[in-house]
């Protein structure tokens, strides 16, 4: 199973990170984000022609982080594992706190 990868393995090189390691890094990053912020929610972004499915975690302050996820089913499962609310961004949009936080970061 090719978790967290859209490409078929066409012969690995030493610079490629194994899929299991990438998956572990994403999960560790998300766990740390959830553990160190208050009111974290997950927003699933569908794939586009140029980008795979991604999941954005947004804290109550609007601070956010985004990582690639294999598909929407895996994103929903990960959000349940992290015990945080999860939304489809096509249905809900992004929280206004995320837009305010991003705008404030650009001004810095």
Task: Describe the protein in words.
A hairpin with an 8-residue loop joins strand 1 (41-45) and strand 2. The chain has a four-stranded mixed beta sheet with strand order 3-2-1-4. It is of the alpha+beta class and 108 residues long. Helices cover 42% and strands 17% of the residues.
Task: For the structure shown, list the relevant keywords.
globular; 4 helices; 42% helix; alpha+beta; 4 strands; 4-stranded mixed sheet; 108 residues
Helix-residue proportion: 40-55%
Instruction: Give the mean pLDDT.
Output: 88
- The number of helices is 4
Alpha-carbon distance between the two ends: 42 Å
Structural class: alpha+beta
The neighbouring-strand order within the major sheet is 3-2-1-4
Low-confidence stretches: none
Note the topology.
Elements: H1 19-36, E1 41-45, E2 54-58, E3 64-68, H2 72-82, E4 86-88, H3 89-92, H4 96-107
Parallel strand pairs: 1-4
Antiparallel strand pairs: 1-2, 2-3
């Amino acid at each position: 199973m090719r978790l967290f990868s859209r490409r078929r393995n066409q012969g690995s090189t030493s610079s490629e990170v194994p899929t299991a390691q990438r998956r572990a890094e994403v999960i560790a990053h998300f766990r740390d984000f959830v553990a160190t912020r208050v009111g974290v929610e997950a927003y699933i972004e569908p794939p586009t022609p140029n980008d795979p499915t991604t999941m954005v975690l947004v804290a109550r302050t609007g601070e956010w982080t985004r990582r690639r996820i294999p598909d929407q089913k895996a994103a929903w499962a990960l959000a349940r594992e992290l015990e945080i609310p999860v939304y489809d961004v096509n249905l809900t949009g992004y929280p206004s706190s995320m837009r305010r936080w991003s705008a404030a970061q650009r001004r810095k």
